[in-house]
Amino acid sequence: MLSSPAIWREFFQNYYQDELNKIAGRISTGSFGVRSINVDVLSHLTIFKEGTLAEELFSNPDKVIDDARRGIELTDNIYDVKLENCIPRFFNLPLARRILIRDLRAEHISKFVAIEGIVRKVTEVRPKIVEAAYFCGNCGKKVRVYQEEGVLKPPYECPACKSKRFTFVPEESVLIDSQRIKIQEYPENLKGGEQPQSIDVYLEGDISGIINPGDRVVINGIVRANPRGQGMKKLTHMDLFIEGNSIEILQQEYEEFEITEEDKKKILELAEDEGIYKKIVGSIAPSIYGYEDIKLAIALQLFGGVPKRLPDGTEIRGDIHILLVGDPGVAKSQLLRYVHRIAPRSVYTTGKGTTTAGLTATAVRDEVDGRWTLEAGALVLADKGIALVDEIDKMRAEDRSALHEAMEQQTISVAKAGINAVLKARCALLGAANPKYGRFDKYQPIAEQINLSPTLMSRFDLTFVLTDDPDVERDKALATHILKTHKLGEKLEKMKNVSSEYTRQSLEAEIQKVTPAIEPDLLRKYVAYAKRTVFPVLTEEAERRIVEFYVGMRGKAKENSPVPITARQLEALIRLAEASARIRLSDRVEVEDVERVIRIIRKSLEQIAMD
Ligand code: ADP
Ligand code: MG
Questions:
Q1: Within this chain, do residues 199 and 286 fall inside the same structural domain, yes or no?
Q2: Whole-prediction pTM value?
Q3: Domain that holds residue 316
Q4: CATH number of the domain encompassing residue 570
Q5: How does pLDDT run across 187-233, given as a tens digit for each residue?
Q6: Among 284, 330, 487, which residue has the most ligand 1 atoms within 8 Å of its CB, making it the best to mutate?
Q7: Rounded distance, CA 599 to CA 602, Å?
Q8: Ligand 1 lining (C-beta closer than 6 Å)
């Protein structure tokens, strides 16, 4: 093995002399505590000695990090002080060291890896004793004991008088900040319906307390295993966790999508297509019959408006919120699930909440170690994506109040016990709700039959009411459609064995009627491309049309209208029109966009106001 304190001394003096001097300067002025030296693995360590040291770090991190630490102590610096308590932190690992949480195996235990994910939970930062100081209760001698993880251990006996009575002295013990976090796989990397997997990470020193739930991070560290179970009842099954050595916080953009030149060509072609809006509508839940307006609204939501920062610092969201309320069995849940499959970065949950964290965020005391823990809810995990919340009317009371802030300011503030945080929740919300009393009563105002406050309702840019009234024509068409989709499943099976070219072609023609016009994969790239590159601005004519419509609506709105027309609707109108222009990949919002959106807003208002 190449690794030794001496070789690390050489490495640090070659690449990090400035850093060493800076730290030495701080030590010489009397600053205490742990100090980090960040080592760029890819740029420096993989080059030094043909990368042997890097390989040794990956395969034998415990010894190598210890060598590196002792190597730092040996280095020279301009202040001529000893660099004690320095922690080398290794970041920027080669991509080959990136392991998916779900791929972690026994072979990775005690190896140095990089894990990427979204932070789901963080505990408060607490000091941890690494070296405990004791006074001998008999002769008064000071004894220091290095501590392992777990229960505080006093010395066995006093080296001077052999007494076994000791008093613990916290102020003379060496403490280090510690924090436990949980990271989980990215929502966008899950295939439809898969549950995300997660892993605990232990952080110590200056890397604790720097990240928030919802952050996307790479954690570099050592894989460890703990026997499952608590106390005396340890099991032979092991739980894996990561002992974090360094953290990289990632920029949260749509970068994860690789759009090839070929994809780009297809996208530009689609955007030129006269029938692009129809095509996109036809690509959203084609197995669900009807609801063209809702599907268009969802398309606009996928593309989104342009977020703005006003000169006074106020931020206006570009994300579009949509609410579907309706009788049971009208395919609300199905729609949400479908959008989950096609939308980049979407998180699906129900208001009742299968997780403890609910929609916004929760601060709870951990049962195991009594620490306060902050856990991100769906809207935080869906940051820069879409949160799909089924049965949103059944959400918890805490979420109800936090949702106002989350939907408008797109942040979630938590102030409880040791936790004080403002989490980001820059996502669009697509919610579904059932009527309070099972089914809609046609003779009562709709708004009163939904278990959501008017202030919350007004934060949705569009609300659609889906009623299940018998209508012979529609019912017949719906039944035919459902039967056809169901049969298609069988036919797809059959197709594998069809030899006649004619039969195959006619089967394919039928299948095309309920298969999306644009493949989900391409649609996802289309959305990502548009959001990344298109930021449309209103033309003068479009502006005029918006003002005209808004003033008209204000004039017509009844005093006791269930949805008051406010400046909120004006903002919604602009957002929706921008999204409409984005679909065409147009830099300009034209009158045609405004008209398209006005039609949809009218539909939405008519439905909700119907009484
Ligand atoms: P909801 O959440 O509104 O109570 P679901 O989404 O669970 O309803 O839908 C119930 C079932 O009815 C689903 O299997 C769905 O596919 C079917 N269904 C209802 N309306 C339609 C429709 N318009 N097109 C196709 N299937 C439908
Ligand atoms: Mg449902």
A1: no
A2: 0.82
A3: 271-345+427-609
A4: 3.40.50.300
A5: 777 665 567 899 999 999 889 888 989 888 999 999 998 876 666 66
A6: 330
A7: 5
A8: 288-290, 326, 328-334, 478, 481-482
